[in-house]
Amino acid sequence: MQHTLNNHGHITTSERPDCPPIRSERARVVAEWFGLGKAVKAKRPRRSRASAPIDFASLVQPGTLVLITGPSGSGKSSLLRCLQETCAAQSPTQAAWIDLPRLVLPDAPLTDCFGEDLALEDVLALLGHVGLGEAWSYLRTPDELSDGQRWRLRLAMGIHRAQAHQQSQAILVADEFAALLDRVTACVVSHALRRTVDACAAQLCAIVATSHDDLIRALRPDVIVRCDFGRVEVEQRNARTHTATEVAVPRQTRG
Q1: Sheet containing 3-5: which strands, arranged edge to edge?
Q2: Listed residue (152, 180, 158) closest to 171, CA to CA
Q3: pLDDT digits (tens, 9 = 90+) for 61-112
Q4: Which of 140, 152, 201, 212 could in theory staple to 130 by disulfide, Cβ–Cβ 3.0 to 4.6 A?
Q5: Helix 147-165 and helix 120-129, axial crossing angle in degrees, nearest 10
Q6: Cα–Cα separations (whole angstroms), residue 173 to 122, 158, 193
């Protein structure tokens, strides 16, 4: 599926996804079976009707968690990339785009993963906020943590990086969010992400893409974007009805 940014800063999607190139006779036969691509263009003309545009600015607001969901291959990743392009085009100096899975985890104890500009007491408070408050975990390196703990460490690093940018808004982004985690751990990480967005609601929002619908309850997203091989449906949810627990997240200090 193709997502494009129009002149008004809106994202539009094509009605049907693009077909991969036909590289073999077997591929051509399969394309004919499923009505894809040039192999059946004469029999089944492809339409290029556009769906209603998606207003990016209305989706991504401070304190908002956006969930992009849909089957594998339905266009979640391409939509996420288009959202990033939209963010850069609309506010190139206003928002920090923080890709959680791409954050480089230092080869150092967790107490030393945030640089020397954050006081040790604030490091421990930040780790405790994301669920890494056990004393033994402070002394371990990221490689010695479980997959779920590494995800929580990325959340802590994302908060720290957002504060370091000192910009009006920071966007935490994760494609294939918690995809390789067992479902219990994935729910725990999802709860941690929701708490993070709530605690930093004045500055932070999050966009995650996953094919696992079972995380909706744990994430409690404010917006759900459902991709369905050429269609994109946006559901605005009143996630503010849930009770948000105020968490004291440390600010960046020197010393």
Answers
A1: 3-5, 10-13, 54-55
A2: 158
A3: 889 999 999 988 888 988 888 887 777 676 655 678 899 999 999 999 999 9
A4: 152
A5: 120
A6: 24, 9, 11
